Amino acid sequence: MKQTVNLTCPVCNQEVEWSITTRLNTRENPNLKKDLLAGKLFDFECPVCGAKRQLETTFLYHDPDKKLMIFLIPNYQSRQEEIEALLDQMASQEGVDIHDYQLRLVLHSTDLIEKVTLFDWGLSDQEIEIVKVLTDGLFAQEFPGKLVHNRFFYIKDKTPKILYITEDDQLLVDFHDSLLEFANSKFNKAIVDQHQGQFMVINQAWALNALDKKNTLKDETIEAE
Ligand SMILES: [Zn+2]
Prior knowledge:
- The protein has helices at residues 30-37, 80-92, 109-120, 125-142, 177-186, 188-192, 204-224, and strands at 2-8, 15-21, 23-25, 43-45, 52-54, 59-63, 68-72, 102-106, 148-156, 159-166, 170-174, 199-200.
- The chain starts with a strand and ends with a helix.
- The chain is of the alpha/beta class.
- It is globular and about 50 Å long.
- Helix 2 links the parallel strand 7 and strand 8.
- 39% of the residues lie in helices and 28% in strands.
- The strands form 4 sheets. Strands 3-6-7-8-12 form a 5-stranded mixed sheet, with helices on both faces. It has a 3-stranded antiparallel sheet with strand order 9-10-11. It has a two-stranded antiparallel ribbon with strand order 1-2.
- It binds zinc ion.
């Protein structure tokens, strides 16, 4: 679904009309999904000066076949109080019962693209966030001293990788199936709960929390013995 909005071009400061996509249903808009995965869906090109930018806009991705909704809300942290109502409203406009849906909340379009990619690959974001934390150790060994800004599940030549964004570089690291198996055996409890019907932020902080809980449990067990 498209919506026409007035934008102020960040380069020439002219107010221009621009048509933005606010929601995508994968059954109804397969071409929009291609644009999303190609990183083109949020492109803005100023009709006055020609400047190109990526828009950060509120957006809903809905895959009815996977019972998955991903809400892109660029500034949700500053909108805590209204966020539940906003998400409920966006979800209800899709006209489906969401009680058995996986509902995800992301801040950036890159996070949205990553989640679409990994769910399409047949994995869950809970698995991947834990695998990324486990891979961080390997990355630090391979590239000591590199400051990591972000990392993403990424498909290169039909092979899953972890893409590390550092202060001055983009580095692909192998995706280890052994780490996926390890995550599933050791952190199974955190992974199998799909939180259906709940709006969830599954990110690095979530994974660190899941790992931390597990370690706390282990410590308690040791003390009990
Ligand atoms: Zn302009």
